[in-house]
Specification:
homodimer; 412 residues; alpha/beta; 7-stranded mixed β-sheet; 4-stranded parallel β-sheet; 11 strands; elongated
Chain lengths: 412, 412
Amino acid sequence: MSAIKGNLVVGQSGGPTAVINNSLVGVIHEALAQEKIGGIYGLLHGIAGVLREEFVDLRAESPDALETLRNTPASALGTVRYKVADADYERLLEVLMAYNVRYFLYIGGNDSADTTHKMHLIAAQKGYELHAIGVPKTVDNDLAVTDHCPGYGSAARFVAAAVRNTGYDTIAMGDTGPLKVMEIMGRNAGWLTAAAALAKEAPDDPPQLIYVPEHGVSVEQVIEDVRYWHKKVGHCIIAASEGMKDDKGGDFAKPPLKSVGGKAAVDAFGHAAKGGVAEFLEDVLKETLGLRARLDKPGYLQRSFGELTSSVDREEAYRVGREAVRAAVSGESDKMVTLIRRPGPVYAVDTGLAPLEKIANNEHKMPTEFINEKGNGVTPAFIEYARPLIGGPLIPYARLACKMMPKRADSH
Amino acid sequence: MSAIKGNLVVGQSGGPTAVINNSLVGVIHEALAQEKIGGIYGLLHGIAGVLREEFVDLRAESPDALETLRNTPASALGTVRYKVADADYERLLEVLMAYNVRYFLYIGGNDSADTTHKMHLIAAQKGYELHAIGVPKTVDNDLAVTDHCPGYGSAARFVAAAVRNTGYDTIAMGDTGPLKVMEIMGRNAGWLTAAAALAKEAPDDPPQLIYVPEHGVSVEQVIEDVRYWHKKVGHCIIAASEGMKDDKGGDFAKPPLKSVGGKAAVDAFGHAAKGGVAEFLEDVLKETLGLRARLDKPGYLQRSFGELTSSVDREEAYRVGREAVRAAVSGESDKMVTLIRRPGPVYAVDTGLAPLEKIANNEHKMPTEFINEKGNGVTPAFIEYARPLIGGPLIPYARLACKMMPKRADSH
């Protein structure tokens, strides 16, 4: 099957990542190489750019700017969190038809996959040839079918580095500040929090404890976990998912807690806005162990730190962008590009295509075999899965050998 | 004047930095080259290592480990926040005498300078020849006499990068999340918060607002400042010092606020523990402008991010370590090594020596000429001062030219 000549639109949606522009540049580079593609239009703020007819001419961008864009975090076209209403789709299609758009490339997560799927459906229903292809992107790593998601590897590298750095800082502080909590992005899926384990060089290294939403833990267990590590190594660094759960499946952080205007906050998709896990842990540990925990809440740095991306992630983000255009011009539609890991000891991926319906509004959480039995750490299988994604080891750090001098016989 | 043969101790004190180990390695390298120096002993956890007689043999460390240590953040010997009591000094001197220590090198801030000064005094009082030299270190950049402090340049580079990254993220989000607050270290001095200005490439770039403790602002002004920028550019990124003050000189963040166990927290030196500025700004902006602000609180990453240090800072931290040993063996005592900036357009520093008494318990705050009139940003003079310290520009980022396509004549 071969596709029709026409224009292409590309948009970016949902939370930005540090490498999402690689997917955009991949789309542009491949579109420039395809004879079937006329105009290459960027959508300002994703699907909102169609509704507002805010298209930019991506053929007018300089090759140098596109190269530099590959090092630039956050969606260069602007992103959007807008739940497209069913009533919007006819209008969206009408705009695309008016601009003779035949290729609809949408870089995003599961909400975006839903939008792309529905764009395909409305076009098919109206008998308009439109090739709608999803380009995977999310630091949450929670898309179905694909082995992993572009954006995750770079966020994972940042989290691993951040936890290692704050771990060194905590160890240096000794008795003065032995507890540290880093609150990590992930409302429902623990992939990014789990990546903190990549900071470890030895089993007792920080983070000593990792809590992910997929495995709830009781407050009592957390207290005992911290007590154990504090006693064993003199400190304890906790990587806590913002969506951490208790052992009954409820939120681990209990009210009264920080919320927006006193009301529980939800985003445009009705997802509950989480947070407050770090402060709740701080209070609990102060109250029960009498120890003050220090908090790091790196927030949006986790998904935007352009100075510390994964080379693997960067290349894969670019590649899925190119692949999406190739799929579209070869006649595909209603698909998302996936990454398929080759078996064997050397990390390599192929790309594939999966029906958008399998991705849309589906959350791929961490499987049981990646979380330890107690729910306070990850398994070697997870490390094996995640390590190649961060693009090589972190820079080497050293510890002193610390050969102790003998004490004086008469010392106090 | 020439100094006596004997052993050397070196300790690290106060908050770690990303380059403090360069000062340690500088001390070790120079001590290895000095014939007058016998044993080179590291103090575990600073002055506490003297009280506990926890000395490590630094001659036993491998040259390779020392090289790698130069890339490793946080005090490798462990640090301490212990206010030395007057009654401790006799005991401290007794230990140093027992180990024939003639060189006391202490890497730290103003509290450490006080300790070093008093070690000098007690030795002089007892007629024991001891060369006590301070090695400057603090991300707060608040030491008197010296042009700037090792540790600051790297923390400043991290803060500039962090604000730029979260700024790109915020701009990408558009109307969905136009406000961002990053809370930055600095209880009384705004040097590190001010470094956020180095993220700017153009006047309207993030951070649009910078609030430092040296210049209080009213809540009303902050609301108007944010309203102005949100209207002008559609978003607003705020770099807020954790020690931000109101226009009457009180804390900007008002209770009820997060505190430890409901009581105002203080550290071992009686300094008030601050914080809560980000959440207070979030509440104020939600209440008055109806806009939700996103928060980044990178916490201890600001002083420990080994992956993003300043090359200038790294070299200077090493150099002041070497200089301190040279000063000690040439007979100096009761001094701290300083950095003296040469006049002229090309950045260069010389080292000098200043009496510890001028440094001890003295806080060098930002001068008026570095803060703009309204107290919501910095001046070009500050930029000129700070830019060389971060060790070259941040990696280049790109924005799209965004040539808009003409709209259809009949578009909605």
